[in-house]
Design goal:
The chain folds into two domains: about 240 residues, no CATH class; about 240 residues, no CATH class. Helices cover about 50% and strands about 10% of the residues. The chain contains 21 helices and nine strands. The strands form two sheets. The protein has a seven-stranded antiparallel beta sheet with strand order 4-3-2-1-5-8-9. Strands 6-7 form a two-stranded antiparallel sheet. The two termini are about 50 Å apart. The N terminus and C terminus are likely disordered.
């Protein structure tokens, strides 16, 4: 039997049981393909390139978090007679949650390209080659890092109880750890690794002919795939019997068809629908965004979420992104230039400018020229946010035309808000912080921009939003901003007032305006639960 036949057989055997799915609405069937392989070649390659970057982030996160866990090996293998302290529990759960997040983001990519064997290599070499590469690279990483993590944690009763508990703030469903183990310590996925490695050798001419090997990022991914596969195969050969024995003992309640890793039906189908059918079509309409603008004010803090965009992989939580609203230059002038406190403060700045906006224009001439322009949609620039391109000025199409949007107003003086915007202008242009290092100003992640812009100082009350530990790093998921709002809600010393919440709905593919009571609990929504009502 050929390598391709073996691979097809084993992929079929290892596939999840078929489940009935609801028929798609007629509009979906007629407006866009639901399957990534139904895209034309140009759209498919564009999608594959985006998924390659998602896969890179996910696999790098898995590797880093595995290494982080092994540095604390003694903690993971502590006996059940010595209970964990609250700080130790926080470290263990946050590391597992970040690992789980990276694992799912990787698994989503693997499942999106699962049917590559149904696409003939000779007639559609580009799709077949991309599909195999993304599927097998994801699997190799999942097994290499996943089996190591399962081996480290397996058989530790106290630890497994802790990691199986639901943690909505972290995006952890009940029994996620048991289901994770069943996924990585399973004969089906292991056979896929061995047959996939064999198929890779036979497919190399197809990869070369399709030009995939010359794509940016692919050579590095190919090398990583080889390394991960080698590590996984080695662990299987050395520790396979022990791992499978532990899994059999630990998963006696998790061996039914229902216990297939939950990403199979929910996330995979959702990703196919939203990132193919709904890509570029946010749930919030442009009209809703424009109608919200009159209620906005410079200095407002926004949290945003796009369902199809896997941003901040490894930072758990429903809200992945935060932004600072500054308004148009005219709104900025109307808000601050005539304020007595602001005028008094501005007069102390170098050159003794007459107004706040005059100071920004003089202190940052190039940035001011950019800010007073328009975006690609012809809209004024109103937002400062840190995105993959760096800390940028953006318009409503990028910053607010999303799936979910929350707007909060700091309960601070106008002069404090002006100081925060001045700091944000200082940070504009700096690169995105892919290391999430909150103790360096050389690069900034999205929440870091907001946090540092409003950081308290001797002459600024600012916002007190504590950093949290995620996998041993002090950082600030956007979820924490909403958690602080919820914890302080209704109190006289609260730091935020509610402005607006546009709540997306995947079913009808729209968004509704919801109240503060609805918004305050959104940080407890599951990051990967897309069955939103």
């Amino acid at each position: 039997m050929s390598a391709a036949s073996l691979l097809a057989a084993w992929l079929t055997l290892a596939s999840p049981p078929a489940e009935p799915t609801s028929p798609a609405p007629a509009t979906v069937a007629t407006t866009a393909p639901r399957d990534v392989y139904a895209l034309d070649d140009a759209a498919f390659v564009a999608q594959a390139r985006r998924d390659l970057e998602t896969l890179r982030q996910g696999t790098e996160g898995l590797r880093r978090l595995k290494e982080e866990a092994f540095r604390s090996k003694a903690l993971y293998q502590r006996g059940k007679d010595v209970p964990y302290t609250p700080d130790e529990k926080q470290l263990l759960v946050s590391t597992w949650a970040a690992f789980f997040d990276c694992f799912i983001s990787t698994e989503v990519v693997r499942q999106r390209y699962w049917d590559f064997l149904k696409v003939p290599a000779f007639t559609q070499p580009k799709k077949h080659a991309w599909g195999f590469l993304l599927t097998h690279a994801a699997l190799a990483s999942e097994l290499a890092q996943g089996m190591a993590f399962a081996d480290l944690t397996g058989g530790q009763a106290q630890l497994e109880v802790l990691l199986n508990e639901p943690g909505p703030e972290y995006g952890l469903p009940p029994r996620a750890f048991s289901r994770f183990k069943e996924k990585v310590v399973h004969v089906g996925t292991s056979t896929q690794l061995f047959t996939g490695d064999g198929y890779r050798a036979t497919l190399h001419p197809v990869l070369a002919k399709a030009g995939v090997l010359n794509e940016p990022g692919v050579p590095a991914l190919f090398q990583t795939m080889r390394q991960d596969s080698k590590a996984a195969r080695s662990r299987l050969l050395k520790r396979g019997p022990v791992l499978f024995a532990k899994a059999a003992a630990d998963l006696t309640q998790d061996t039914t068809a229902r216990a297939v890793f939950p990403v199979q039906k929910t996330v995979a189908e959702w990703m196919g629908d939203t990132r193919v059918h709904r890509s570029g079509k946010p749930l919030i309409s442009r009209e809703q965004v424009l109608s919200l603008l009159p209620r906005m004010a410079p200095g407002d803090v926004m949290v945003a979420r796009q369902n199809w965009f896997l941003s901040n992989i490894g930072l758990p939580g429903f809200w992945p992104h935060a932004e600072l609203y500054v308004g148009t230059p005219q709104e900025l002038s109307q808000t601050f230039d005539a304020d007595p406190e602001v005028k008094t403060w501005v007069a102390t700045l170098p050159g003794h400018p007459e107004t706040f906006t005059a100071h920004l224009a003089k202190a940052f001439p190039a940035k001011w020229a950019e800010y007073t322009g328009k975006d690609a949609h012809g809209d004024p620039l109103r937002i400062i946010e840190s995105i993959s391109e760096g800390v940028s000025f953006t318009g409503v199409e990028h910053g607010m035309h999303v799936d979910y949007l929350g707007v909060l107003r700091p309960r601070l003086s106008q002069v404090d808000k002006a100081r925060a915007i001045l700091r944000a202008f200082t940070f504009q242009g700096r690169p995105y912080d892919f290391n999430f290092d909150f103790f360096s100003d050389q690069s900034l992640v999205c929440t870091e921009l907001v946090w540092k812009s409003y950081a308290p100082s001797k002459d600024m009350k600012g916002l007190d939003i504590p950093l949290v530990s995620v996998a041993g790093r002090r950082t600030l998921p956007a979820n924490e901003i909403v958690r602080v709002f919820d914890a302080e809600y209704g109190q006289p010393n609260r730091q935020f007032d509610f402005v607006a919440f546009l709540d997306g709905r995947e079913g009808p593919e729209d968004a509704v305006e919801a109240n503060a009571e609805s918004f305050r609990y959104t940080y407890r929504r599951m990051k990967w639960d897309i069955a939103q009502e």
